[in-house]
Amino acid sequence: MALTGVQIYKFLPKTNCKECGYPTCLSFAMKLAQRAAELSACPYVSDEAKQNLEAASKPPIRLVAIGAGDKKIEVGNEVVLFRHEKTFIHQPGIMYRVKDTDADATAKVKEVAGYSVERVGIDMSLDGFVVENDSKDAATYVKCVEAVKGATDLPLVLMASDAAAMEAALEKVAADKPLIYAANSDNADAMIELAKKYECPLAVYGNGLEEVAGLAEQANKAGVEDIVLDSAARGFADSVTALTQVRRLALKKSFALLGYPMITFPGEATDSIDEEAMLAGQHIAKYAGIIVLDNFTPAMAYPLLTMRLNIYTDPQKPIQMEAGVYPLSEPKADSCLCVTTNFSLTYFSIAGELENSGFPSWLLVCDTEGLSVLTAWAAGKFDAEKIAKAIKDHKVADSIGHKKLILPGGVSILKGELEEELPDWEILVGPREAMAIGSYLKQYWS
To answer: CA of 113: how far to CAs of 71, 147, 278, 364, in Å?
Structure first.
């Protein structure tokens, strides 16, 4: 039976040492109750407490790390079926597969590793590479793995059915903690031993959830804790069914044998790049931990990365900019001053248009708790009093040599109130849409 945070707190040392990563033992207990933390994070928990709390506090889906260092990816440890219930925590890793029979494997790796795109101030890119032993030759495979490793420091998945080829590759890159793919009904014993020997996470592949659960149980009993599941479901209907069943069984039924992240291969279901992209998008939404692409183009990657960012942004904590005065295109004292909210998408929309307008500008960003202009105004978080206070708090007068402020057109209703708050300022009403700011400045700002 699940324990509450208060019940769990009674078993903790109550030292508030913060070594678990949380400010107090009570806050750590609350995370344990939500199954969003692991009891092992507490260095001082007693053996008696471990016996009482281990099962109650164990996350329903294990957090599995692939790779080492700053570039590692962590997948799993989700606690809800639907994002609006709370939030999704660890975004799925999107990886690209190369084969040791590809003549241009290294060039492909460099191209994919070099791809990065910015959205709302966040750099988005693919997370790693799968290296497949397509040749079935151990020497060829090791050579390819070494070449890929030399071209990137991103995490790897080693994909080989032959244990000898897998071990030969692991001898070269085991320190980087690659994911071993995969233990199946034919090679499970050997692959499990390799996972234990090299202390790497292990994927298990079975024809259906029953076989997958059996292989996961075998690996777990042998001492392998970091496991990734592959149920062999590949198509649109089959994969969403399997992924949803695993998530439901782990969260709602506490079925530990399927309490692990899943890996998917959307390219194996179709020869169409467009369909592969659509299926990958489905897997991002429901409920893959690692998604392996067989094709790559910027036009394919950008929408997938954007979709992932949107889904894995905490709906209770919008992406925010720090409040303050931002100089755009090296403004001077007589450059225009605009005001906006600290919702990142709003900021980058207006900032981008100001930079493209040819008018160096100052942009005053008010703290609206991450809300957009109209939403913040409706909530009472973007009004004349707050704008006037932001001008004072951020010492706008130290940067500019005039007293003219351009207000977003969507909240033109604030003009009169702002003139009362700032009687010696001239308040101008800008356009409703950010894209119109360039033409507005050409007409109204000299």
So the answer is: 12, 14, 22, 36
The residues spanned by each domain of the chain are 5-57, 64-311, 324-444
Name the helix (H) or strand (E) containing 326.
Answer: strand 324-328
Q: Is 269 helix (H, G, I), strand (E, B) or coil?
A: helix
Fold of 324-444: Rossmann fold (3.40.50)
pLDDT average, residue stretch 255-260: 95
Domains 64-311 and 324-444 share a fold: no
pTM more than 0.85 = no
Residue of 62, 14, 11, 21 whose CA lies nearest to 41: 21
Q: What is the pLDDT of residue 56?
A: 65
**DSSP letters spanning 110-130:** HHHHT--EEETTEEE---EEE
Pairwise CA distance, residues 247 & 79, whole Å: 9
Q: What percent of the chain clears pLDDT 70, i.e. is strictly above it?
A: 99
Beta bridge partners of 205: 230
Least confident range from 128-142, 307-321, 324-338: namely 307-321
The DSSP code for 443 is H
Nearest to 56 by CA among 2, 19, 131, 124: 2
The length of the chain, given as a count of residues: 446
Rounded CA gap, 136 and 120, in Å? 44
Residue 1 has pLDDT above 50, yes or no: no
Contact 296, 110 (CB under 8 A): no
| Average pLDDT over every residue of 333-356 | 95
C-alpha radius of gyration, the chain, whole number: 26
pLDDT score, position 55: 66
pLDDT value at residue 2: 62
| CATH dotted code for 64-311 | 3.20.20.20
Burial of 110 (0-12, 13-18, 19+ CB in 10 A): middle
**Res. 152: pLDDT tops 80:** yes
Mean pLDDT of 254-283: 97
Q: What is the CATH number of domain 5-57?
A: 1.10.15.40
Query: What φ, ψ does residue 80 adopt, rounded to 5°?
Result: -135, 155
